[in-house]
Specification:
GO terms for molecular function: serine-type endopeptidase activity. By secondary structure, the protein is mostly beta strands. It is built from three helices and 14 strands. It folds into two domains: 99 residues, Trypsin-like serine proteases (Thrombin, subunit H, Beta Barrel); 109 residues, Trypsin-like serine proteases (Thrombin, subunit H, Beta Barrel). The N terminus is likely disordered.
């Protein structure tokens, strides 16, 4: 059953999305979350991995890469914070529009953001061991964003968080009834229209970036959202950006 708890309010409260609780949160709790905008309108999510580099979905750059700006440091969508233009964008070789494979991108802004309590990068995870499916050692993730469709009318533009459980690659393949690439994992329940402006939203575990939302818009209510596995792409990200995994 999908429903809302009536006490959802600014800076606090919950709702239910699928079977996962939606928590209203603030940018101070997730200072790496950014909004990618085109013509001043929220287009996709992303995550700061340094004060000048952003990780997002390759799908978010289709036909708009030269018009994207990045807004950081905001709890409420489109209000305040710091904005930068995109100076450089890179997608892995072999990505095709609509594909699950290689669906990740890095952006460099034209001028570094100023680091504050509201603007701070999230560390990269350890590179994925060979032969291990994404999410093998991750049981729960935190996904943030502004456009979870069933909850956004109650959130009034405030940043939201869900904490879905990662499913095994075997279960993910069974649900979708087709092979899911090894660079992709699924998590949580079906969330209705979790697509378009939710793409690129970061998923973290222990405050490390582990996933990027790449698919959640499916008419079949049994299909959970799909994420590109950041551990799978850490070496590629490091080669492009010069940012490496740093053990604690």
């Amino acid at each position: 059953m999908k429903y809302f708890m009536v006490f959802l309010c600014a800076f606090g409260g919950t709702a239910v999305l699928g079977q996962d609780e939606v928590i209203l949160t603030t940018i101070e709790e997730h200072p790496w979350q950014v909004s990618l905008e085109t013509h001043g309108v929220h287009h996709c999510g992303g995550a700061l991995i340094s004060l000048e580099w952003v990780v997002t979905s390759a799908s978010c750059l289709a036909n708009v890469a030269d018009r994207v700006t990045v807004r950081a440091g905001v709890t409420f969508l489109g209000h305040g914070g710091q904005t930068r233009r995109v100076a450089f964008a890179k997608i892995p070789h072999g990505y095709k529009l609509g594909s699950l494979k290689s669906n990740i991108a890095v952006l460099r802004v034209d001028y570094p953001f100023f680091g504050t309590d509201q603007v701070w990068p999230v560390p990269l995870p350890e590179p994925e061991p060979d032969g291990e499916y994404p999410g093998r050692f991750i049981f729960e993730i935190s996904t943030t964003g502004w456009h979870f469709e069933e909850a956004k009318t109650k959130a009034h533009g405030q940043l939201m968080e869900i904490q879905p459980v990662v499913r095994s690659h075997y279960v993910c393949n069974q649900i979708y009834r087709k092979p899911i690439p090894s660079s992709v994992f699924c998590a949580g329940e079906h969330y209705g229209n979790l697509c378009r402006r939710d793409l690129g939203n970061p998923a973290t575990n222990d405050n490390r970036l582990v996933g990027v939302l790449i698919w959640g818009c499916d008419a079949d209510s049994s299909h959970p959202p799909l994420y590109s596995s950041v551990p799978h792409y850490v070496n590629w990200i490091s080669n492009v950006t010069g940012i490496d995994y740093q053990p604690e």
